User: Fold this.
Amino acid sequence: MVRDLSADLKACAINTATLGFQAPIKEVVEAVARAGFGALAPWRREVEGGDVPAIAKQIRDAGLKVSGYCRSTYIPANTRDGFRSNVESNKRAIMDAAVLGADTFVMVVGGLPLHSKDIAGARQQVKDATAELLRHGKELGVRLSLEPLHPVYAAERSCLTLTAEALDWCDEIEGGTLDPWLGVCLDVYHTWWDPNVLSSIARAGAARRIFNFHVCDWLVPTEDVLNDRGMMGDGVIDVKALRAAVEAAGYRSHVEAEIFSVRNWWTRAIDETLSITRERFATAT
Amino acid sequence: MVRDLSADLKACAINTATLGFQAPIKEVVEAVARAGFGALAPWRREVEGGDVPAIAKQIRDAGLKVSGYCRSTYIPANTRDGFRSNVESNKRAIMDAAVLGADTFVMVVGGLPLHSKDIAGARQQVKDATAELLRHGKELGVRLSLEPLHPVYAAERSCLTLTAEALDWCDEIEGGTLDPWLGVCLDVYHTWWDPNVLSSIARAGAARRIFNFHVCDWLVPTEDVLNDRGMMGDGVIDVKALRAAVEAAGYRSHVEAEIFSVRNWWTRAIDETLSITRERFATAT
Assistant:
C-alpha cells in the first residue's frame, strides 16, 4: 500500500533549499512546523558557525525530525592534502549531523578535480573517503546516504550518477549487512530517466539501503539544469510511480521536497511555497 | 593499435553541424574536401528539398564518404497518426540516405510526447518503429545507428540514454547476427560520464554494432547543454581513452567531429574551424 500523503503530512519533509535560503534557519524551522510537516533537511550553510545544539533543540521542540543533513564537501582533489582536507571537512559535518539528530548525512560526492579528465580516479577517491567516513558515521550514530546525481552534473558535482553504481559502492564498501549504515538518497530529478531505475529501487529496497527519497519535477523546457527544478506535478516525471516503487521496496521514511528554483519558487514567500508543496504532496506525489 | 589520426585524415569526418550551417551544403562539401577530411555527415535540413542525387554526386566527386545522415524524426507521439507520420518521415529520410550513399542513418529517437510522463511507453514506440525502419533500411541498403543521448535530453530529445540500453534494443529487435544492420552511434559527449561506458563499448564491438563514433568535448562550465559543446581537448572528456577503447573493440570506420557551439565555433569562418578540428584530431583525439 502506498501511503496517503494527504492524510500523513508527518511523512513529508521539506528540504530547506526549497525555500531559497531567504530566512534564517530559526524562521524556517518555525514555518515548516507551522505548516504541519514532519521533518526538514537543513543545509550546512544554515547551521555551521551557528549554535548547533540550540538549532537541534529548536527543531526537536518544534516536533520536527531531521530527514537529512545536506551535504558533503566534494571529495575528489588533485592533491593528497586536498583530499584529506575534504575528508576532514566531512567528518566535522557528520559531527554536526549527529548533534542535529539527522537521520542521514547526504553525500553529494563531487565531480572531477580542476583540469582532470580522470573520472575513474575521482570515483576511487570517493570510495576511499566513503569507507573512512562510514567508520566515523557509525561511531557517531549517523548513517551516510550516497546521492547519485543526474549525469549532467558528472563533471562538476558528482562522478556518481547511476543508482546501480551507488549500490555497487555500498556493497563494495560495507558488504552485505542486515542493518546498513551506508545507503542511497534517491531523488526523482536525478533518476527518472534511468531505464534501470525500477530495478535499482527494488535492489536498494531489498538491501534496506533506501535512506532518503527526494521529490521535485523536471520542467520542459528546463532553463537551467541547476536551479530550474519544478514543483511535483509541473513537469514530466511520473513522481507517483516512483514513490510507489520506493514504498513497494519497503521505504517508510520521509518523502522530502527539494526544489532548486531561482526563477519561481525562490521568489515566493516561504509560507506560500510551503502551502503549495503540501498540496502537491497530496495530489502529485 | 590505435590509429594515428595525424597521418590518417581520411579516417576523420566532419559532421556539418560543427560548421554552424552557415553556408549551403555545396560550399560545405567543397570546404571539407579542401581541408583533406575523408568524410562528412550532412543534416536533412541541408539536403531535403534539394537535388539529392546531385548532392550525392558532388560528395562522391569530391572524394568524400558520407559517414552518417543526420538524423531521424523523433518517433514517440501521443496518437497513432502522429506515430505513423513520424515513421513515414523517417522512411523518406532513409531513402535519401540511400541516395547519398550514407554509411548509416543516425537515429536520435525522441523524448516524451507533449505532456506525457510515460517514458516506458515512449521507449516501446521507438522499439516498434525501429523494427519497421530496420526492414526498410535493409531493403535500401542503409544501416540504422541508434544514438543514445546524454540523459539531460531524456525529456525532449531521446528517451534512449544508456549505451547498454541501446545494445539491449539491438539484440531485442535484430537478434544476434554476424553482419548487423542495426547498431549504435557512440558520441563521447553522451557517454563519457557512464560508469559502464567501457564495458558497453566492448560489448558493442564484440557484436559489431559500433556504427559511428562522434567526438567533441564537455566544457566546464557548460553554459548551455544543447549548444555549448567544446572542441576536443578543451574540456574534461578523456577523448583519447574512449577512442582507444572503441578501436580496441574493432571499430575502424570514421572518427567524426560533431560540435554544437553557438558561442564559439559557429561564430568562426568554416575554414578556420576545419583547420583547428584537423589539428585536434591529431593532438586531442
Observations:
- Chain A is about 40% helix and 10% strand.
